[in-house]
Design brief:
Largest sheet: 2 strands, antiparallel
Number of strands: 2
Radius of gyration: 28 Å
Structural class: mainly alpha
Helix content: 55-70%
Number of helices: 28
Strand content: under 5%
Shape: flat
Distance between the termini: 81 Å
Length: 561
């Protein structure tokens, strides 16, 4: 919508707001209003009942199950669904690796995809997958939805509503009219949730007339409006600078019997920030709310902080960040807000929140903050921020050396798990230059266990790239080759041991004989003796009394020795 047409529609709205709102809304407020909790805080009702294999709404969801049904086999689709659901209900998020595992399992057998599976997967690709950027989540969502359509999966209006919600969470551009056409072509009828999401889209775009059209249609079919619809309209008017109409919407909410809480006023403040109001005005508004007995919570402050970042007012965002009360639930609220800060280029501000977590020695490992804010580091790594920028931000935290070292250790781990090997190399080199080779905490005892769990998920190419990267920064030693890399490369169907050995030696790594004997044993145990025996026999420096030869002899290979 052009600036001129937007201003015109806003003016017309202001001229008719009182009368039009009374006519449009008065006929809906008499209907039961579904009051919902703050959508920024609540878990997205993933509830998957593994007993009935039916998704439950937030109104009907039972208590989370504490253990998977005994009928589920470890590694099965149902077990994975159950695990993701439990984690989502507990933390309000899912891990990207779990979302990808779910999609991969569904892709392996598309005929087995059920409508419930599809609904669950769509909901997993919204804002609760905080490990990915919005664009990355949207790409996965588009691929999956296209796959469901390709196999002609029977989907109902709940699938389209979940898709709309994910669109809004990922800031995906779409046309409400196109969505309505698609729903009609599928032989489905929009429901209250559908219209609620479409109104939100119109309001996000500043198209109040479009939102009003939907409201008038809801009136015609006797469909009630709810709190979320009102808040969308509050935001739209405030963004347009029409604070009078925003207040009028809040008054209508109160007249309809809705308990207007702090989130409605926070939404108005967010719109004011996006309209360009200075920090002083916003602070005055916050103080007025306090005088009325209304206090902003962590989610409210973070909502305003992100709005200031959108406007480029970083100083105002930092001032508000110091006011966070950090009440119960702060950890998960922050977790869902950090990606938004990073998306707006505020890596430094995102990392500053690490200072809000206590030191490792005094923190209770049973609390929700037991990872010391490490999720922030993962979000930063996923964003592609430069290693130099990350190190400078960590230095500003003024944390004790032991906490700083934990951050460095976790950053290296995240660079590996995210596959950012080029940045890993730069990060390690810069860290060694900054803190000295001896003080850099990354060492063999730390990463061996992690590599053993990570490498099985990598391709042969990825494994080789990581091995070369760690070798370049002097973090890949003989022990790690023996215990992690050689087995991982072998497991990737690299059945030619001689070729594998030559490739590793080409990287400049000097292979010790016992590594070759360890690998030879692995080849033999798999039933491929010829290449392994031939390669191992070339090395006579290993004594025949070693445990490797003993194990080989137990495989009836005595003639080789």
């Amino acid at each position: 919508m052009s600036g001129g047409s937007f201003q015109k529609s806003t003016l017309l709205w202001r001229m008719t707001s009182c009368r039009k709102w009374t006519s449009v809304v008065s006929n809906t407020i008499g209907k039961p209003v579904v009051q919902q909790s703050n959508p920024r805080v609540s878990i997205l009702s993933l509830g998957y009942n593994m007993t009935t294999s039916r998704f439950m709404s937030s109104a009907t969801a039972t208590q989370p199950m504490t253990s998977a049904p005994q009928s589920e086999k470890p590694g099965s689709l149902e077990a994975l669904l159950h695990s993701i659901n439990l984690f989502a209900q507990r933390s309000g998020r899912i891990l990207d690796q779990d979302a990808r595992r779910l999609l991969n399992k569904l892709y392996l057998d598309t005929d087995a995809i059920t409508p419930n599976h599809a609904l669950f997967a769509i909901r997993c690709l919204g804002s609760i997958n905080v490990d990915l950027t919005k664009n990355e989540r949207q790409k996965l969502l588009d691929e999956f939805f296209a796959k469901c359509q390709a196999v002609e999966l029977r989907m109902d209006i709940s699938h389209h509503n979940a898709l709309l919600k994910a669109y809004l969470e990922n800031d995906h551009q779409f046309s409400p009219t196109t969505i309505l056409t698609q729903i009609a072509n599928a032989g489905l009828q929009p429901n209250r949730v559908t219209y609620q999401h479409l109104i939100r889209k119109y309001c996000n775009d500043g198209d109040i007339d479009g939102a009003t059209t939907i409201l008038e249609h809801m009136k015609q079919i006797n469909m009630p409006v709810n709190e979320q619809v009102f808040q969308s309209l509050v935001l739209a008017h405030a963004k347009a600078g029409d604070y009078e109409s925003a207040d009028k919407v809040i008054e209508i909410m109160q007249a309809s019997g809705i308990d207007v809480n702090i989130s409605s006023y926070t939404t108005k403040l967010e719109g004011m920030i996006l309209a360009g109001e200075p920090a002083e005005i916003i602070n005055d508004q916050i103080l007025e709310l306090v005088d009325k007995g209304l206090f902003l919570g962590d989610s409210d402050y973070l909502q305003l902080i992100i709005a200031f970042c959108q406007q480029g007012n970083i100083e105002a965002a930092k001032v508000l960040s110091d006011k966070l009360p950090r009440n119960t639930g702060y950890f998960n609220i922050l977790r869902n807000s950090i990606p938004a800060l990073i998306q707006h280029g505020q890596v430094d501000l995102a990392l500053s929140f690490l200072a809000t977590f206590g030191t490792a020695e005094v923190m209770d490992t049973k609390t929700e903050q037991n990872d010391h804010g490490f999720f922030i580091l993962r979000c930063v790594v996923n964003s592609g921020a430069s290693p130099n920028e990350v190190l400078e931000a960590i230095e500003k935290l003024d944390k004790p050396p032991e906490d700083r070292n934990r951050f460095l250790l976790k950053l290296v781990q995240h660079y590996i798990s995210c596959g950012r090997h080029d940045q890993l190399e730069d990060f390690v080199k810069l860290s060694k230059e900054k803190y000295g080779k001896m003080d850099f905490p990354f060492h063999e005892n730390f990463y061996l266990r992690f590599l053993k769990s990570h490498l099985p998920t990598c391709t042969a190419t990825q494994t080789e790239e990581l091995m070369k990267t760690l070798a370049n920064v002097d973090l890949c030693n003989i022990k790690s080759l023996s215990q992690c890399f050689y087995p991982a490369l072998f497991d990737r169907s690299r059945v030619n041991m001689s070729q594998l050995t030559k490739e590793i030696q080409a990287t400049g790594i000097n292979l010790e004989p016992y590594i070759l004997y360890t690998a030879a044993l692995q080849f033999i145990l798999s039933g491929d003796e010829s290449d392994a025996i031939k390669e191992a026999a070339r090395h006579s420096t290993v004594r025949k009394g070693t445990r490797y030869i003993t194990q080989l002899k137990h495989k009836n290979c005595k003639n080789c020795w």
